[in-house]
Amino acid sequence: MGQAQSVTVVEDQSSPQTPSTTSGTDNSAQPSLDSLIAEAVAYGVEDENQSLEVTAQKALECPCIAHLRSGPCGTQFSEAFVCFLKSTAEEKGTDCVHPFVALQNCIKANPDAFSKDILEDDEVEKEEKPSQEYHIKPPLWSVEPKTRNR
């Protein structure tokens, strides 16, 4: 329920900016995936009473995600995106595991399917979490003295 309200808020904020945002993305750095999805959702919501199917299909037609729909993983992206938009699960998208796994597998098989700017957020998180191995030494008082056998 709160997610539907969030979509309305996104729509209200994005609607006046949609033409300038779309034209500005060609000349500037690539927008984040989250901002592209928010723009596509706002593009798809014309009437609050329209069905999820209609909203999802209109959002998929947004020019802001046209580059994500084309290419080797376009079909997988479209299926995952539409499933996410139509999701009615309490935690949105949890009922879309299979389409997202298919998209992830496609991206692994085709690393150049999407621009690095779009995929960068996940890579940054991985870089921020280096795995370090720690060797923990117990305090001297907790170590039992070794006895010598003669």
From TrEMBL:
Molecular function (Gene Ontology), one example: oxidoreductase activity
Cellular compartments annotated: Mitochondrion intermembrane space; Peroxisome matrix
Gene3D superfamilies found in the cross-reference section: 1.10.287.2900
Record field: compositional bias (Basic and acidic residues): 126-136
Keywords: Disulfide bond, Mitochondrion, Oxidoreductase, Peroxisome, Protein transport, Redox-active center, Translocation, Transport
Statement: the UniProt record of this protein carries the keyword Glycosyltransferase: no
Main location: mitochondrion
Recorded GO CC terms: mitochondrial intermembrane space; peroxisomal matrix
Stored InterPro entries: CHCHD4
UniProt feature, compositional bias: Polar residues: 1-12
Residue ranges, compositional bias (Low complexity): 13-25
Region: Disordered, residue numbers: 1-31, 122-150
GO biological process, one term: protein transport
Protein name (record): Mitochondrial intermembrane space import and assembly protein 40 homolog
Lineage: Eukaryota, Viridiplantae, Streptophyta, Embryophyta, Tracheophyta
